[in-house]
Design brief:
Blueprint lengths: L27 E7 L4 E6 L4 E6 L6 E7 L9 H7 L10 E3 L5 E8 L13 H8 L11 H10 L12 E3 L2 E4 L5 E4 L7 E7 L3 E7 L15 E6 L15 H13 L3
Antiparallel strand pairs: 1-12, 2-11, 3-10, 3-12, 4-7, 4-11, 5-6, 6-10, 8-9
């Protein structure tokens, strides 16, 4: 079985033929394709770039992010929205922790259909919609997949917090209704994130909880990560707003210990 290769698996050692210009292949850290209904997790060092590609236009990347040194600090979706005065993630936006620090930033994004409102599915929502939603069943749910990823780092169910969803979007209508925008979209859309702290990154690839389709529909998600420089003082994302700058300064103060 050692020579078995499938479409959705980690590539060891990591190899990618489509790294961005200027990226040394020797700096490649992680190459994996996450199956429909799958999950993945990795500890990423500060400065690491992480590229997510929606291979077939129907992936949904539900993210949980933790401070790798102190996982009690984790992504806070409410603060991510309110501190930036913007609920719609895109290039230059920050993913903020519950302690006022930047965990990751969005460097590139050619889709801008993301969701910071709905969280992910669970066993009950999947059972109601698809007839079954267990981890071991035909229609796994996002929350339990995130739990599997978090568990690899000694975390528990209580540590699976509200997530953001990349590639599947929502908008708020004038009457307050959450309107899903879940595609499917064009193949190959991508997002590049930058780790602003050492983080535990967990991603589940399950249908969006508001997907209106009756069938359980999701496609593979590709992940590539490579080493990069820590964000410099004159970085445009760092200096884009007073609130964002303070979040970066909080990170720098944390790393000054």
């Amino acid at each position: 079985m050692g020579s078995t290769v499938v479409d959705t698996m980690p590539v060891l050692p990591p190899v990618a033929t489509d790294l961005p210009a200027g990226v040394d292949p020797a700096d490649l850290l992680w190459e994996e394709t996450v199956a429909a209904g799958g999950y993945a997790t990795r500890i990423l060092k500060r400065g690491t770039r992480l590229r997510l590609i929606d291979l077939e236009g129907d992936a949904c990347a539900s993210l949980n992010i933790y401070n790798a040194e102190m996982p009690v600090e984790r992504l806070n979706v409410a603060d991510t929205v309110k501190v930036q005065w913007n609920a719609y993630l895109g290039p230059g936006k920050l993913l903020l922790s519950d302690m006022g620090r930047v965990l990751m930033s969005i460097l590139e994004d050619d889709c801008e259909t993301h969701d910071a409102f709905c969280g992910t599915s669970n066993a009950a929502t999947n059972a109601a919609k698809y007839g079954e939603g267990r981890n071991s069943g035909a229609f796994p749910n996002g929350r339990d997949r995130l739990l599997l990823g978090a568990g690899k780092h000694g975390l528990q169910r209580r540590d699976v917090h509200p997530c953001v969803n990349l590639f599947k979007g929502t908008r708020i209508a004038p009457d307050g209704t959450i309107v899903p925008n879940v595609g499917p979209f064009d193949r190959g859309r991508k997002v590049i994130l930058r780790a602003e702290m050492d983080v535990i990154f967990v991603v589940a690839n399950c249908p969006h909880v508001l997907d209106p389709r009756e069938e359980w529909s999701i496609s593979p998600l590709r992940i590539t990560a490579w080493r990069g420089e820590v964000t410099p003082q004159d970085d445009p994302v760092r200096n884009a707003s007073p609130e964002g700058l303070r979040a970066y300064e909080n990170v720098e103060d944390y790393n000054r210990r």
